[in-house]
Amino acid sequence: MTLRPPHGPVRDPAGTPARNGSADPARLPDLALRSYGGSVLAASDESFAERQALIRPGRPAFQPGTFGPRGQVYDGWETRRRRDPGHDWAIVRLGMPGVIRGVVVDTAWFTGNYPPHAWVEACEMAGHPSVAELTAAAWTEIVPKSPLTGDSEHFFAVPGGRRYTHVRLNIHPDGGVARLRVHGEVVPDRALWADMPVDLAALENGALVTACSDEFYSSPLNVIAPGLPRHQAEGWETARRRDGGHDWLVVRLAAPGVIRLAELDTANLVYNAPGAAALHGADARGGGTPGEDAEWFDLLSRTALQPDTRHRFRLTGERVVTHVRLAIHPDGGMGRLRLYGTPAPPG
């Protein structure tokens, strides 16, 4: 276990530092995030603070001396004081099933009421299981019982490569946890894609931003997140460039495929939208990750963009791509990038 301070610079929707790549598990998307479809299906108790707060986006907030019917208001999940030998728990359905690489148990603002210990279990169940079915499921311990401290982020690396759909946070004996983050690699049920077009750039389908030139204001992962951005912070925005260059990001597609329709959405970007954008593709089915010196070919030539607009472009190429490079000129941001196409046959 490692402890990380609860405050930092730029953060992704989950509230963790906005970084790229998969070498550090904490850089991977939060599979349990509420805005990605996660839900806290059940909890043993939520007398002081509601269970759904565990998976809210953003950093936990706190205002001392703010009292409601349940006592001091906490932005997190808090149970009553136990007077028996048991422990408290919460079952979370992952919004995006996948391979879990790291878990964060964040006790931000809980100082005299945090749980002394926690452990995490996971399971995989097809379909839409009920709480009763989940309670009876075979759970695998992915984080052993570990000590916690107050007002701290506790990061636990998770070994192995199994796919999971649900996790269960256990705390002993009781107390409050502000946030639970479940970082990992999305592994969707690809049988649902059979014989139909799909958004090959969607995070929930298994795509991932593997590199970008700048992430000063917000995470590039936002650009392939589910749903529409409600404001600028839910898109990708770079610093102002002063060097004559341009900004870019690289998306590893959910599967190799032929892209038929590209959607570049500058939603909420009114005075900071890019002046133009281009799309380039690469075919790395032979292995590796294409870099700046890769054989990139044009998918969409440099095209002027409008502020706060959803732009759609039909693409006519027939080449299979595994990675797409979005170039924005010279800087600015993008609310969402959608790349609709047909997955290539296996092999």
UniProtKB/TrEMBL annotation:
Residues 1-27 are annotated as: Disordered. Belongs to the allantoicase family. Transmembrane segments: none annotated. Pathway: Nitrogen metabolism; (S)-allantoin degradation; (S)-ureidoglycolate from allantoate (aminidohydrolase route): step 1/1. It catalyses: allantoate + H2O = (S)-ureidoglycolate + urea. GO terms for biological process: allantoin catabolic process; purine nucleobase metabolic process. Its EC number is 3.5.3.4. It comes from Sphaerisporangium melleum. GO terms for molecular function: allantoicase activity. HAMAP family: Allantoicase. InterPro entries: Allantoicase, Allantoicase_dom, Galactose-bd-like_sf. This is Probable allantoicase. It comes from the Bacteria. Pfam families: Allantoicase. Keywords: Hydrolase, Purine metabolism. Gene3D superfamilies: Galactose-binding domain-like (2.60.120.260). Residues 37-186, 206-343 form the Allantoicase domain. The gene is alc.
